[in-house]
Amino acid sequence: MKTPPSDKKSRILNKAVDSLLSELSLRNVAWRGKNGKAYYKNHKYHSRSLASLASLARDEAELCRLAAGWKQVRDSLLASSPQFENSEDQSLVIVIENFSTAILSLLEELQQSSLNATVLLADPGGLFWQSEAVRIFPNPDKTAASEDSREAIDYEAWREIINSDCDLEGKIYNYAGILAENKGIFYPLPVSITDLDKACRLFGLINRRSGIKILHLIPSYYSGKPEIKNSSEKKIKAEPDPFACESFPKSKPISVKLQQPSLEQAALPRLAEDLLDLKLTSCIWAARQEPGLFKQLRSRLQTASVRSALTQAAGSAAAGTHPLVIISAIDLPLILNEMFDRLDFPVTVLLIEAGLKSCQGSIPSINRHDLSVLRNLKHLTIGVPADEEEARRMLKTLLSLQGPGLLRLSCSPSVGMPAAGNSKPFGDLKGACIQKGKDLALLCLGSSVYHAVLAAQTLKSWGLEPGIYNMRWLNPLDSDLMREITGCPNLITVEEHAKFGALSSAAAEYLIDNGLSGIKIKSIGLQEDISSSDPEAHGISASGIIQAARELLEI
Predict the structure, then answer these.
(1) What Cα–Cα distance (Å) separates residue 291 from each residue in 64, 69, 72, 301, 369?
(2) In 3D, which of 210, 167, 154, 166 has the Cα closest to residue 190?
(3) Peptide bond preceding 476 in cis form (omega within 30 of 0)
(4) Residue of 48, 152, 323, 469 with fewest CB within 10 Å of its CB?
């Protein structure tokens, strides 16, 4: 447990935040708790509707979501209603007192939805600033926005602010800074509350940028003079932090786990590039997120509502092209009836934001059960890639078929594969044996393949011979590979989906149909009660597979 900062430091910092907001005459302020109520009571120049929403928030995460929804509606009104034409357009300011990596992940999600907001991080103890591991970027210019960006910061003013309090050349990152940077969130040097003018100037600088920005307020910069080691990666040795963060124990060396890009994030840009060469493919974008690099397709890219996407695709197919329809997994229920009734023409559905996609703190039900529903369309070819290069090959395979197909892209972290110059489609709808086994078969689908590869190394050290099988295609299931797999007496299925209904059910059905009752089977998949979008929390990890193997083999 981390020790809470003293009430005195909290009061001082909250008073400074109050003064900063008042000095800047900010109106769109979201601040929950007793400190927020005190601010709204003492300052009448604020949005009453936003203040009411802030009073409803049960925690910092809910505050961010409510504020984001409020801002989206307000921007829509400003853009479409004549009575709001002359309204003052101010950016959203969210005051966070209890910061965590979970809040950072949420801010990343909100930034992807094009939210423009500044987060004031009130840190009474310098908790996220004083640390044993910080990183320095010697040239702030190298981290600036690109020259053609309209939102580039005035770095001369930036250097002036840095140099006035710190004799280190460059931009200093702490724990929160490293994590924020890797989530694409702008995080400048923390600023002391003892200099209100500097805090106001810094707020003015970062507020010119779009997206999510964090202004970190601390009581003082750091205690003691830091020592810099002369090495390729410079480190600062600071005094121990009296307020230890439970995420980074003091007793162990500090290591920051950088978030890997998801399979979807890695695959979509490559798929967009491949589509440029596939001239007979039309693209219909009906997903919730922006098309991104798919805009390169120009006239071949059309936008449509989810409900009309398949009808539009049928027209494209009739005109002689193979349509590619991109939709978000959460919208799948809107077109399921049409898929069952009318999906009898060549079309490929690219399902994005699938699997462990966080949505307001939980995983939508359809994201847990999408494959179990889709598997009932016996004429639908379903591909679930393990990495971005496999996604490229699968898409080309599906686009070459004469019937309907679906490619499901996961939102889980991806190992990442080097880009192949010209990926070729699969010659058939077959899976792959990565490693033959005798004692145990690990039957994997999608992003779980690499967890199985890591788990197999440990199982080998125990004297076991585990087999690893990448199924690739859920529909049709590779019967030849299944025949090889059933040579093992024990079987574990691993998938980023509900435990039953997709791969596990398909494997069990194969065993029953072929009278193979002597094989023991165990399933790893998403829990029904979901409170985390981390695959490891559901056992979809090397350690989770190892534990399942121990239970199955009773060792």
Answers:
(1) 25, 22, 19, 9, 25
(2) 166
(3) yes
(4) 48
